[in-house]
Amino acid sequence: MSEPNSPLPADLAARLKRDDAGLVAAVVQQHDTHEVLMVGWMDDEALHRTLTTGRVTFWSRSRREYWRKGDTSGHVQWVKSVDLDCDGDALLVRVDQVGAACHTGTRTCFDGRRLDAVVGPAA
Q1: Annotated binding residue at 102?
Q2: Has 85 been labeled as part of a binding site?
Q3: How does the average pLDDT of the chain come out, rounded?
Q4: In the predicted model, is pLDDT for residue 89 greater than 90?
Q5: Of 14, 87, 102, 110, which residue is least crowded by CB atoms under 10 Å?
Q6: Is 87 annotated in some ligand binding site?
């Protein structure tokens, strides 16, 4: 169901499957190396801003406000493409990342955080 008063085109708003807070997960990936940089959350307004400004905007669940990546850190994310997954509940945002993507100062939010896992055979 689309959100009332959504700034998105009606067909796009209708395709989004939001969580109970009205948010969709946004996986951010470096466009040329395919590194997964981070995961953030977007509501309709954040997605609208991302699609129309060339910069990635998220909804901060902890601060309860919009934040545009890089406004305070200088670590800007320039939008290269945005895709909606087949279920409508996740976005893939390909960017050109300037500087660190993670608030800890690492290139990605996944650097140095590998978990022990049994690795399956090659297909």
Answers
A1: yes
A2: yes
A3: 93
A4: yes
A5: 87
A6: yes
